[in-house]
Amino acid sequence: MNKGVYIALSSIALAQGLKIPIHYWKKKEFRPDLFFQTGGMPSSHSAGVASLTTYIALNRGLPTIDFALSLVYGLIVMYDAQGIRRQTGELTLKVNDLDDLLDKVNHEKPVHFEEKAPDKLKEMLGHKPEEVVGGALLGVLTGTLGYLMDRKR
User: Fold this and answer.
1) Model confidence over 87-100: pLDDT tens digits?
2) pLDDT digit string (tens) for 56-84?
3) Rounded to whole angstroms, how far apart are CA atoms 11 and 48?
4) Which of 85, 115, 139, 149 is 20 to 30 A from 10, comparing alpha carbons?
């Protein structure tokens, strides 16, 4: 693999790892499982594409096709992370609330209906805009550090 891939993957892993202490600081709840989940602060999607784009910009230059491709791809990924995926997460919250509402309705006036209990849908899919920006800033930092470390050799 090339250096850009290593930097992007390292940035993604760092962002995922940072979710645990940030969540603990906000909620006073230790959740190591957040390392393997989507959503939350910072966005690992944004960190990955921003670090790669930064590394390419510093290594190859801004007028290159490499940088242009990485920038456009990165912007699409970040837009998707906070746009469509976020809206899907919001919709999932509403669907999960419907189950609670149906339970309340059934307690008022019992209706015979048998259904397999579905698993709750995953609610943390996308990112808030500040999570995307946080991931992008982390990515720029790791991309710059990766470039500087590569230059020292």
Assistant:
1) 676 677 677 677 66
2) 999 999 999 999 999 999 999 888 887 77
3) 5
4) 85
